[in-house]
Design goal:
The chain is about 30% helix and about 30% strand. The strands form two sheets. It has a four-stranded antiparallel β-sheet with strand order 2-3-1-4. A four-stranded antiparallel β-sheet has the order 6-7-5-8. The protein has helices spanning about 20-30, 50-65, 80-85, 90-95, 110-115, 165-175, and strands at about 1-10, 35-40, 45, 70-75, 100-105, 125-130, 135-140, 160-165. It contains six helices and eight strands; from the N terminus they run E-H-E-E-H-E-H-H-E-H-E-E-E-H. The protein is an alpha+beta fold and about 180 residues long. The protein folds into two domains: about 1-80, SP0830-like domains (Alpha-Beta Plaits); about 85-175, 2-Layer Sandwich (Alpha-Beta Plaits). The mean pLDDT is about 90.
């Protein structure tokens, strides 16, 4: 089965640096097949016959040791990624004045728990949820006023990893 692993917080602002070639090798050493990476922000596409639970256990247990810092990884099947992209908010298809992000939530935290911590800026931000994700939308004309930036100060922030919609579409295409 085909999967996408989304690592949180690597190669951001010069911190938690991981070369994609090293990440690819680490996934291969964990027994995953047909491994590839996409851009320098910790996106790994791979095949595995293991259950999603077993994949998460392998990755969570081993990657932090390999790279010597705590890593949070959200793993999603290709089928789930397809459903995630099929259920984007309708406004994403219509408006060009939007910044569109998908926040992937690491279990056991739910998208509803994350949603409860978000303080939207009226007329600027909107959010919708789907299984394990939040669709976060900000009008470009109000980007500096967005309330989403305050999410980074919340404890729950360490349980999500965020990708822009174009990256998610490309990951689906590559998978």
């Amino acid at each position: 089965m085909r999967y996408v692993a989304l690592l949180r917080g690597i190669n951001v602002g010069g911190n938690s640096l991981v070369k994609m070639s090293d990440l690819k090798k680490a996934f291969e050493n964990l027994g995953f097949e047909n491994v590839s990476t996409y851009i320098n922000s910790g996106n790994v596409i791979f095949d595995s016959d293991d259950s999603l639970t077993k994949i998460n256990e392998k990755i969570d247990r081993k990657l932090s040791k390999i790279f010597n810092f705590d890593l949070t990884t959200v793993v999603i099947s290709k089928k789930s990624l397809e459903k995630t992209t099929e259920n984007i908010p309708a406004e994403w298809k219509k408006s060009k004045d939007l910044r569109c992000y998908i926040a992937f939530v690491k279990e056991p935290i739910s998208e509803q728990e994350v949603l409860s911590k978000i303080r939207l800026k009226d007329g600027v931000d909107s959010v919708a949820t789907y299984r394990g994700v939040l669709y976060m939308t900000t009008k470009l004309s109000g980007i500096t006023k967005s309330g989403f930036s305050k999410l980074a100060g919340q404890k729950i922030y360490k349980h999500i990893t965020i990708r822009n919609y174009n990256t998610v579409k490309k990951l689906l295409e590559l998978s």
